[in-house]
Queue: 4 jobs
Job 1
Amino acid sequence: MERGRSTAFAIGPTLSLPVFEGGRLRAQLKLREAQQQEAALAYQRTVLGAWNEIDNTLSALSTEQQRRTSLAANVAQSDHALQLSTSRYQAGAGTRLDALAAHRTLLAAKLEWIRSDADVSLNAIRLYKALGGGWEGAGETPLAAR
């Protein structure tokens, strides 16, 4: 038995539409929309976190700068007290113990000022980093030169 052979010819563009895949395509579309919303929320969370970090760092920097200024005034007052105490001791009106106590107070004030100065510098670096700054090591070339 011989079956008939048929040949088909197509002229022009062919169009293929998925007729019975409507449910699956709608589900994929909803999935993609949900993924897009999730990505937008993650981006928003990242941006808000960055703004929060910048705000906190600016606040810490400002507070520490004010503290450093106050400590600098304290160092100047302690230095003046040491000079007066030393003058009184040399004139015979004070004791050596008073002069040493004033010297110890001056050294403690200077130590606090130095710590505060270091904290100001660290907060400035944190702010630079929070704003997206970067730096190169000694052996690296800047990005602009590359």
Job 2
Amino acid sequence: MLRKLPGDHTRDIVSTVPTSVVFRPVVVNTPAIITLAALLVRALAGAARTVWRHPVACLAVTVPIALCLLLGWRTGLLVPLAVVSALTGWRFTEPASFTRWVGLRLRAWWVLMWVYRRHWQPVMVVSGLAKHLGAREYLPRLVKVTCTPTADVVRVKMLSGQSADAWQERADNLAHGFARPQCRVTLGAPGRLVLVFPRRDLLATAIPALPLPAGPLVASVPIGLREDGAPYLLKLHGTHVLVAGATGAGKGSWLWSAIRALLPAAAAGLVQLWALDPKLMELSYGRDLFGKRYAADPADCAELLEAAVQVMQERAARYAGVHHAHVPTVDDPFVVVIVDEVAFLTAYQTDRKLKERILGALATLTTQGRAVGFTVLAALQDPRKEVLSIRNLFPDKIALRLDEPTQVDLVLGDGARDRGALADQISSYPATGAGVGYVRLEANPEPVRVRAAYVSDTDIRAMVYEFAGVGEGR
């Protein structure tokens, strides 16, 4: 710091206050040949990466040019025309195989270049997923884009130190930024994410009842379709399943689809169906399928549950030290206890002693039944803890249409909605939303969107006519 002495206008004296020292970095002059070599290496690496990721598109560009240079422009045009004609014939004669091997690959290249890579930088900046340090901008890396028949799948490498939660919180920003109706964020390899952008909804229309299985099915049964069009198999053996949804959300579709798929196994004596129907609305229509193992009155429901507990405990005593896991047989069948609107037996039951008996039996079945071949499949309208205190004893959960966003995490667990389980946004119109739900399994925290098939009254009457009493077992 400089200061002037009084009366002295000619000299400056440096004060004793310490001054800051500025260091200038040493400027290194890189030889031009090294700079050019580095640029050349980067260009070759970029070209090789492009050829590796998009071989079909690169061949479609380079082959005609090479033919024109080597054989003349006429030959260079004839070959591409022949290829286009062959592909057109393939497209109309075998559309499924053409779409799988060519159509989806071309679409992936197109949306990569025209949609995602073109808008990547502005979308990352505006959504707050890019970072600025000093004068430099850091962007997450767009790794790869693939297409399924219903969605674009974008694989991304996150910035170092970035969390997946930051992407999940900005899923709406990403969907709007790339002009897609929705974006779901799922975890990939360490440091990587998978962004799924649906293009069309295969679950927007009702699915008719699935055909009866040709043979007995026990472990997993067909319920409906996933959003990618693949069949969905619901695991029942070795777990317990809770289906939660508002009135009219389609809980009956899940219950009846499971019953329908289990009927051939029940006819073979490998499955027993025990039904509790306190509302007298859903399962009563096919009560002849369950025979004596059907109850509607709360007192009868308590007795039926206690009978199931007794059978389970007798089987557990026989298995002790002999069998480690249950294998369905005619002597020891797989027992499925189906409860429609379990809250009628727990929260809304006015008889305190009866409520305690029911809760105790359900708790015993859900804590001890899996290993010896007992499964509880329960439907619930109100997912609050005070309505069903044993909610967490169900390893696998299904959230149909719910009234509030907070209810999604109540059913599927913390963070499920942030992972894409938007059950509160499912349409309330039965034709488009009934039976649509998000499944979260014990073994996989990622929610899967599924629609259960609609089993009509006509289908149930036909099932009763063919299989009356098989669910009762022996």
Job 3
Amino acid sequence: MTGPPEPPTDEELLAAHVDGDPEAFAVLVGRHQDRLWSVAVRTLGDPDDAADALQEAYLRAFRRAHTFRGDARVATWLHRIVINSCLDRIRYLKRRPTTPLDPERVVSAAPGDDPPDALVDAVTEALGQITPDQRAALILVDMEGFSVEEAAGMLGCAPGTIKSRCSRGRARLAALLRDFPTPG
């Protein structure tokens, strides 16, 4: 007696999508959705902007699946598309600044939820003050737990560049968070 069939690999799903399978891409994205969302939110700092960037990234991946060469894992390829989409969104937002809403008029999306703690707010604000390249490197390596080599593949640069961006980003964050009270 044989067990249940093995689920298709990411590479098999991408190939099936390219061959016209109408459900393969949704299954593939579903596998990685939580981590891709996390990267987008942490990179952009705003769920609405993250949703826009992620939607754009999914469209790019859907349309360009035939260009996947297999040089990296499919998950790495998807992360790279998401990061690039987030960086594009950051550049777009810098060209078209918005006026923040009046806090008195903002309604909580989840009534009864506790607001994020002060440290999360401070780190999020500090991340918004470092360069997008440093932010992307720090989020992938320090927050998402990818190796330097994996992050380099996702961002399309050398591992040494990732190490440098992380080092400079950490130093900048340390300076920005210097006055934040430490617990205990």
Job 4
Amino acid sequence: MRGAALKLGQMLSIQDESLVPPPILAALDIVRQGADVMPRSQLNEVLDTELGPDWSTKLLSFDYEPLAAASIGQVHRAVMKNGMEVAIKIQYPGVADSIHSDIENVRRLLDYTNLIPKGLFLDRAMKETRNYVGGKLLELTLMELFVFCFMQTDPNWSNFLYEKEKRMINLIDFGAAREYPKSFVDDYLRMVMACANRDGDGVIQMSRRLGFLTGDESDVMLDAHVQAGFIVGIPFSKLGGYDFRTSNVTHNVTGLGATMLKHRLTPPPEESYSLHRKLSGSFLACIKLGAIVPCRELLLSIYQNHQFSESTLEAASVS
């Protein structure tokens, strides 16, 4: 056992026989002492892959006997060329990919042992958590752009910290943060609504105002541009929860990229590069979570409470 299964197995091993049957307790008692260590051949393969085949030349010494073996990796003592003693933590190969299957196996174990009461519905409890985190993450992204006009544009998942006790998303690392002009935010919100409503004329109109299009594009380019907008707007197109597991929005847009690159007459507006990186990261996080999020409700709440500037209102009515 390694990965999530080992971690939860260690937790289960300290329960008493009233919760976990004795045969399972006996098996789990073994894992409490730690994981099986990697054989030397596998260890060398991981080190060669991650650090290069000459990794040993960068060290004075490396102890092949691990100090400890845990759920996702093992720790080895080594000495650098300058004499500094270091600990090298080496992740088991394939452990990251096994997390989902490990959780499913442990869920079955919990069901079998009756450790989780029937009325708790473990699957549903885990799904409420995923949906809540995904919804809050996407809501935060929309608010950053359309309410604060200030966005942290690095969507690295480690920059989103979930505080379970307060059920709060904490956003960190503002090294790549930036402001967006009010006129850009107003028109971008109108474009997002046009994408969500599958309003092709609205998408083209706002895209020209924002600088995505010049007005002289070919029909092929216009069609590809509008279709890309419609794909991005899918999560926001219908009321109710959108299941991000049903399709990969960012992957589907990439399929139209070659056409748009070939027929594009002008580069996208400067503001869009960091913005689209953040939006893609938020979508991918929801996909990874397998979250079901009421995206349209979130967008409508933003749109209905948005204070459009007078200048953009007049320009929109003229257009």
